[in-house]
Specification:
By secondary structure, the protein is an alpha/beta fold. It is 42% helix and 21% strand. The protein has 2 domains: 5-254, TIM Barrel (Alpha-Beta Barrel); 308-386, Arc Repressor Mutant, subunit A (Orthogonal Bundle), CATH 1.10.10. The protein starts with a strand and ends with a helix. Bound molecules: S-adenosylmethionine (SAM) and iron/sulfur cluster.
């Protein structure tokens, strides 16, 4: 696998807002595509001047719904990145797409623009649940879009959301088996989460629906792992499954705590400059981002240097999402300054983690279910770290 930096491009618009979604996505009546294209290109120029000589191994168009972008905008962004930086021969160029017919009809044009992988937001293979999730497509359209993706691109993946209200384990098993007939090398399977600020958050608080409790949610998770493993697509990350070699290289950059440049409203980045790691964050509101790029040539807030302790924490949080785990010395030679070794031993004794060769740290399936609690448990307190 080639290593290099990633470029993330955020397109912040959708046809409708899904009730579960807290991504930076907006519904606008009119979008001036020419202006958006010009601002993306200017932002690329800005980062290229700041980070000359980078090797780019992945470009990811995320959203929002980037399949609503004009193919010529996607082409212009890819061309500009190729002009400004060196790109690897096997660069992965992914576009997130919603499976409505209008968008699937554009797949050939996205391919011509340079996209070589799509990630489709199928979400469910059940029409009632697609309605509940506020989606703009039905099962028939989703399956058709998968077929078109298969014909159009070297690689495709699709997303499903499970542990939905009223979904039984049996329902999910059947749905998953159907999904596997349509899958290629990669699937993303997310448990429904109720996010603050979404329509579902209010509905859930008002008890309009319920979702599985912790034990049933764990059963859903385990069932998912078993089925996918049996079909040759084991989890390589908490919610992502792939045949060997078909992992999302872009997401692996995040989970390996590599460098990525985030462009577009609300996009985040992590970039290393002169041996220091910086966190970058772009203005979140689409209009403000557009205006800032117009005025200053970029839409970024001032970069913030990430202190060594925070780098360790972020690297650990990202790396323990991976089933193959991480090298502690790869994160920091002085990893013992950050890790509470008694807690580490306890986590190993509980079977949540494997700690091999005094270096590699790998979560078990049980450990993955507890990651949110496990990370703070493993880290020494800030006061200890400073002592
Ligand atoms: C940026 S979103 C999707 C992009 C694309 N617009 C779409 O809807 O397909 C990435 C994925 O996160 C998942 N997702 C978003 N919100 C979620 C939630 N509250 N619970 C579970 N999965 C969620 C969905 O599967 C979605 O496809
Ligand atoms: S789930 Fe996708 S389509 Fe729905 S609002 Fe979020 S980003 Fe937009």
């Amino acid at each position: 696998m080639t290593s290099g930096s990633g470029v993330y491009i955020h397109w912040p618009f959708c046809l409708a807002k899904c009730p579960y979604c807290d991504f930076n996505s907006h519904v606008h009546d009119s979008i001036d595509h020419d202006v958006w294209q010009e601002r993306y290109l200017r932002s690329i120029d800005h980062y290229a001047a700041l980070l000359p000589g980078r090797r780019i191994s992945s470009i990811y168009f995320g959203g929002g719904t980037p399949s609503l972008m004009k193919p010529q905008t996607v082409a212009a962004v890819i061309d500009r990145i190729q002009q400004k930086w060196q790109v690897t021969n096997d660069i992965e160029i992914t576009l997130e797409a919603n499976p409505t017919s209008v968008e699937a009809d554009k797949f050939q044009e996205f391919k011509a623009a340079g996209v070589n992988r799509v990630s489709l937001g199928v979400q469910a293979l059940n029409d009632n649940d697609l309605k509940f999730l506020g989606r703009q497509h039905n099962v028939k359209e989703a399956l058709k879009a998968i077929d078109i993706a298969k014909e159009s691109f070297d690689r495709y993946s699709f997303d499903l959301i499970y542990a939905r209200p009223n979904q039984s384990l049996k329902d999910w098993q059947q749905e998953l088996e159907k999904a596997l007939q349509y899958a290629d090398g990669h699937l993303s399977l997310y448990q429904l989460t109720i996010e603050r600020g979404t329509a579902f958050y209010q509905d859930y608080a008002r008890k309009k629906f319920s979702i599985p409790g912790q034990d049933l949610a764990a059963d859903f998770y385990n069932l998912t792992q078993d089925i996918l493993q049996a079909h040759g697509l084991p989890a390589y990350e908490v919610s992502n499954h792939a045949k060997e070699g078909q992992e999302s290289r872009h997401n692996l950059i995040y989970w390996n705590y590599g460098d990525y440049i985030g462009i577009g409203p609300g996009a985040h980045g992590r970039i290393t400059m002169e041996g220091k790691k910086f966190a970058t964050r772009e203005h979140r509101a689409p209009e403000i981002w557009l205006e800032r790029v117009g005025e200053h040539g970029h839409g970024a807030h001032p970069f913030e240097e990430v202190p060594a302790g925070d780098q360790f924490m972020e690297g650990l949080m990202m790396g323990l999402r991976l089933r193959r785990g991480i090298s502690l010395t790869g994160l920091a030679e002085n990893w013992r300054d950050y890790i509470d070794e008694d807690h580490l031993k306890e986590a190993v004794a509980q079977g949540w983690l494997a700690h091999e060769n005094d270096n590699n740290l790998r979560p078990s399936r049980e450990g993955v279910l507890r990651l949110n609690a496990l990370i703070p448990y493993l880290l020494r307190s800030q006061a200890d770290q400073a002592a």
